[in-house]
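Meet my pick.
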Amino acid sequence: MLTDPLTSAITEAEKLVATAPHIRTEQDLIEGYRYLAGGIAACVHSAWAVEAPHPTFVTGTGPYTKMGLDNPDTLYWGARIRDDAEYVVTGRRGTTCDLSFQVLAGNYTDAQVPGNVTAFDDRELHVADDGTFEVRFGPGPADPGNNYFTLTPGSSQLVVREVYSDWSQRRGTLRIDRLDTLGTPPPEPTHDDAAARYRRAGKALVSRVQTWLQFPQWFYLDLPVNTVTAPRPTPGGLATQYSSVGHFELGDDEAMILTVPASDAPYQGFQLGSLWYISLDYVHHQTSLNNAQAQVDPDGMIRMVVSARDPGIANWVETLGRSHGFLQFRWQRLARELTVADGPTAEVIPFDDVPAALPFLDRNRVTPEQWATRIAARQTAIADRMLG
């Protein structure tokens, strides 16, 4: 059968999921099967949507196709490119906080992180008064003053990120064209081409599962549990982004108090992730907080409570019953280096001691009706992104 390579890969990927070393509960396993379904959808879509001579931006991770500790505040777009071709990306800047571009050489695998060719945000581009822009990528020579960036040998992916610091912001538009094929159609697929695409989808699926099971071992799980690192440039070469990471282990009768200064960075965000290295449900639950969503105390600090039980405060970050998972802070569009003083502190306390740990408790409290309003705002904002 033409689809045999894909079905065999799905079986292999399912075995990887079912035997993942972090599985402790039925919830962990069921989440793994849902994660697998999203991976199948994303890999099949990419294999059939991508035409190498006629590139297009494809989103490989979103609310239902998660991977790589996806940021709830970010839209991710990627296109396959060649290092010897000329490309033009045109678009109109949305109202999102940040718009960044990154060229990678190679792919994320369970053995390596792809090389970073170039990374920059829209502050390095000429953007017209109406928000439109045009940026070119090719063999060179580079001319950033005219929005031209070099594709060095090995360049294989162009990744674009749009970051929301407020979920009422609106995304822009993006299009990529390869100049020597623009105006021509791709060839109709043959039997061999169809078979190759199913093989490609299967290979990508297995690699996807293997990669993101391994990735946390490099950057998270060797850290002491229930701690967070000082802010540091994000691994992988993202321009103007710092991050602070950790992993938590909490009982039902425990809570983690995370305290961090409200930043002068245009974007500051925090999220929880499961050990599948994906975001928790951020549509129907408050498992992340950014600049606009987090309540800031009068002393300029943001105090968040990470717990399974509801403490009745605005900055509760829900673990959704998980006893273990990942912690991730991000700061983006920075104009300065961050220091330890800009970063978070973490303290685990008995859940019943949460009120005493919050110096501005009366300001932090929310009613069930106010909490429902917060969740409704999340649901409608994600729906408005139209990424279903």
